[in-house]
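re: ur question from yesterday

yeah so i grabbed the chain u mentioned. its 452 aa long if i counted rite. heres the sequnce exactly as i have it in my notes:
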Amino acid sequence: MRKLFGTDGIRGVAGKEISADLAFRLGNAIAQIVLKDGIKDLMLAKDTRISCDMLEAAVASGAASGGMNVKCCSVMPTPALAKITDINQSAGVMISASHNSFEYNGLKVIKNGFKLPDCEEEEIEDIILAGSIKAQTHHELGRISAYPEARGLYLRWIYKHFDDLDLAGFPVESDTKQLHIVFDASNGASFSIAPEVYRTLGAKVTLINANPDGYNINLNCGSQHTQTLADTVVELNADIGIAHDGDADRCILIDETGREVDGDKIMAITANYYRESNRLTNDLVIATVMSNLGFEKYVSERGMNLVRTRVGDRYVLEEMKKLGAMIGGEQSGHIIYFDRNTTGDGLITSLTVLETMNHFGKKLSSLINDIPRFPQVLKNIRIHDKEKVMESAQLSEALERARDILKNTGRILIRPSGTEPLIRIMIEGNNEEQITELANDLLATVEGINAR
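ran it thru and got these structure tokens back, copy pasting raw so excuse formatting
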């Protein structure tokens, strides 16, 4: 069982679980692993939290002492770093805790555009936990340098795929005008680069939560807190609201009426567009067990097939590669368009939706109106010991009782978070009052186990 890596890198409180010492050891361990594959360069990027500079210096020192040349890309979204490592066939470390609050940070390792497979993460873990530092000397030491070219490389990749998208003369339901976007950067990694792209493509952009100070990343804003974005869209009569999370691999939208559009609905409408454009290979969409049954019904009725995986974008991507799918993602807004990037990319997701609106000539509200949504209740509880809760006989008994009540009218999922000390409860069914009551009963059970 892995002790450091979760479903999305190593996460924890900066200065505590994610210390400078750990970051140094990670950088050195990466050098020991990837130099054997002939990879000499390590690209580093970070989001806007106060701890990022400290961790960047530590990872860079560890990797350079192990013989790698380190190129620091500064503040940049996770998907931008993934694309840079793909273009340069290099390794990378993204310093970010994604949607978590500022006191957390994380270390995500990337190689040639992809997150590391489990076996290589385990190898890195073994090196770190054994304290096996391999320090080079003389000519074998690596260099550490700034790499400002990274931003331009990513931007050119974006414009290459969206050069036909004209947001200055945007035809939506017989109205041709400059598209007005309200963009919530979550005070995170895309606060500068995303608005530049939208404006270059011709949009009018109103920015909110785009003044990072090291502490306000994800603070009541971004893809997990969209009420302010929705209010602003309605108040300004804008065409669309776009929200990223702290490292900009997620995207949640607001339609022009103020309704939230989650990852399921984004996948549904863009899969429709891809299918009409003969780009939806094998008529497949990959989603997780968290995706709503209404989404599954929508794609099925349109001749597409939905395949579900366990929660985590790495598992979505594995299935996409295995089955040759072009679209996959999560309800949270982490969506992969495999013809455009190797990981979820909030900017690419939003531009693909704009492309979809342009293709059908419809407002976002019109595109999502036909997508049904089954009642779904989500509960999160902070706990001390995930294994103790998940292996409890009391929880198993409570789950069995809930499933007996629900029978074939819905489904229940209880799982430990891979990035936070949380247990997540999801119940879906026809009767919202019933599933809410069942979710509250399960929540009380978990709280009781946690308190013992």
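noticed a couple things. Residues 376-451 form a domain with the TATA-Binding Protein fold (CATH 3.30.310.50). also The chain has three domains: 5-150, 162-368, 376-451.
anyway ttyl
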